[in-house]
Design a protein that fits this description.
Length: about 675
Amino acid sequence: MKIFNAAILLLLFSIRYNAQTINIDSVITPISIGDSTNVADSLKNEKSRPKLFLKPYLNTAADLLKTFLIGKKSLDYENYRSAQNFLMYLPLTAQYDFNVLGSSNIPSLYFQKNKNLSITQNNFSFSNSWNGSNDLSLIQNENVNSLEVSPLSRGFISNSIGAAANLNIVTQDSITYKPITRIRYYQAPDDEGFIDFLFGVLITKDLYLKYRLSNESYTGNFKNSVYGVWKSDLTSIYRLSDSIFVKLNYYHLKSNSELSGGINLETLENNSVSLLDGLYNSISTVNFENRTKTNKINNVTATFYGILLPNSFSKLSIIYSGNEEKFKQYDDSAYPDSIRISNVNKYSKYFLSLNHHQQINDLELDFTFDYDYNDYSIDYYNIYSKRKSYALSGLLNYKLFDSILIPAVYTRIGTYENQYVNGLGTDITLTAAGNLKLKFGTSIFMKPYLISELYSLPISYQNKNYISNYFFTTEYTSEIIKSSLTYFSINEDNSPVPVFNNENIQSKDAKIIFPYAEKVKTAGFNIYSNLSFWKVEFLINANILTSEISNSLPKDGKYNLFSGIYYRDKLYNNNLDLKTGFNFFYNDNLSNQIYDFQIMRSSNYFMNSNKLSAFKTYSVSNTPFRIDFTLAGRIQDRATFYFAYENIFARNYFIIPYYPMPSGGIKLGISWDLFD
């Protein structure tokens, strides 16, 4: 609380005059390059005012579904901890929560996870290169500008691993003529705390620098659940000419996570302890009492972007990404060697991407060439190799009848880990009755296997994993409502089946392998609606799986729901922009599955004399839902205060067996633009 009190005192005595800020995001995409039309009136008359951004040459893409995009300004009023929590505000998304910060919660899109879900950051693959995981806690969430769900049929052209589902996270750079210092802070139960510091300054009329530093920590309510992370981010933007810019970025992260593995129900049962009582007892034995994971990331990015031709946008990105993960268990030599683990799984990625977007009247063309070089050193699978990959993708769409009808075709060819990534897709967008859009798409492509899958998967499966999919979305948007209904179907010919190589998950040799693959179909639909009426706002985001779940794969439930009801108003002569209300979360029960936090996959089974045997299951009553109360208010567009009472009914439940969720409590926070 000392830090919180000091922060409050600092905020109370901060400078109170309004900042003259260009609130424009330098998102380097062809449809959203910033303009300077929002500059304060006092600056509009300055003849020497520098132009930091290119003028937009394109309007918002006519075939873009508005419900598939959300901006950070909307998310700033929500109760979030990291980018993981942003997903629930987008259709077709879900999150499977381990309950502990830093435990690599599992994001889901179109009911696809990890190896068949790719998350990109500014169209650069964020997914782990060797195991395909998507740990959103590793992202600098305060830099997020917007999130975009790719239409299902376009997913494979949007990422390097050929995943069917793709989510792109776009980062922002808020440019100000005057230096800005911004602090965001919150505190929650179990010694959870977060602080983020931002400083930005215009060095010259052509050079802008921004530095961001954040820290998050958590001690947890159960054994072996401490987490801490430091993130730092340095960005510079330089104007080479009125139409060409260069952006340099360095990002560093270091985190340490204790991995409990959930409550050990076998120990409770052996000690004749009630499973229901013991599951939510903070002193109960966990599966791993001395297992930890340390992440270290160093990313360097150089991006050149601008207008080379009329009605065009070009971008060249050169990226180095170093990712190191240290995984340890019982590092003390006093423990038997059979259960001591000390693995370092790391890789270095060198990535080159060239993109050109061209508009010729009603015709839009987009071409991208990607090349990446990976240097792997994976102790987990004893993989020490260097791999090269490349891909060429193209997209063409044409606006017919004044953009009422927009057909599009796209393709991707190339290699990934010495496998083909060829694919072809098409979609069509129909705008009817002004606010109503209908969109249909389908694609077929080769899904390459990750090196973690190639380690044990028989070679006979390679280059035989075709994925075909289709979707249909109807969307209606107006000033008061944004709604969409989506049906989708995904067929994967040879999906690798994860299996533990033995039953003793404490053993240092225990790991997930992929002895075979099988055909998997995933089909379902999503209902999404955001209605604002008078001063009341309603939100519903429901996913329902209609296909049967494979007997061999972990079952992640047939449905999940996130909804909310809020009161929104501007009070005190528009000096306070208030949003307050309730969030409701509800999930189907997941099957009992054991997670391997090195490869970030789970399995219901283990190998026993070359046969599959199921891990023991337990009968534990569970209804995974909770209700949160949230309140956020923006004061004079200078400061935002946050209050949340999470799990207001203090319900005991879990989402992933058997990781009990927090019992609830009060979370307080504030964000303040300090000295301008």
